[in-house]
Design brief:
about 110 residues, mainly alpha, globular
Length: about 110
């Protein structure tokens, strides 16, 4: 466990680590659920976009996803984007939520064969 609860504000020059991967996975998960690229209306270079997301706390909207995405999954996507790095879930926790959602889909008859 442990480490790191560094503190105080957002952005800054925090080291890249598991919290960075969780953030990126949250954005990727949103892309898969929304079937589009976040901020596609803002065609900018990737580096500039990433800096703007971190600095301005911009996040893609989940409003359009509410109708067809389980609440638990939307919650974990938002947690992945938390500006407080220590508040982001572990990938183990993210996988648990994904497994739970997949199991629920199976229970609803939404899958193919077993």
């Amino acid at each position: 466990g442990g480490g790191g609860g560094g503190g105080g504000g957002g952005g800054g020059g925090a080291a890249i680590g598991p919290h960075t991967d969780v953030f990126s996975f949250g954005v990727l998960l949103w892309e898969l659920l929304a079937v589009r690229v976040p901020f596609d209306e803002r065609a900018t270079a990737l580096g500039v976009l990433l800096a703007r997301i971190d600095d301005a706390e911009l996040r893609p909207s989940v409003d359009a996803l509410r109708a067809h995405v389980p609440r638990e999954l939307l919650r974990v996507v938002r947690q992945c984007w938390s500006t407080a790095r220590a508040a982001r879930p572990t990938m183990t926790a993210v996988v648990r939520v994904l497994d739970s959602c997949l199991a629920a889909l199976g229970d609803d008859g939404g899958g193919g064969g077993s």
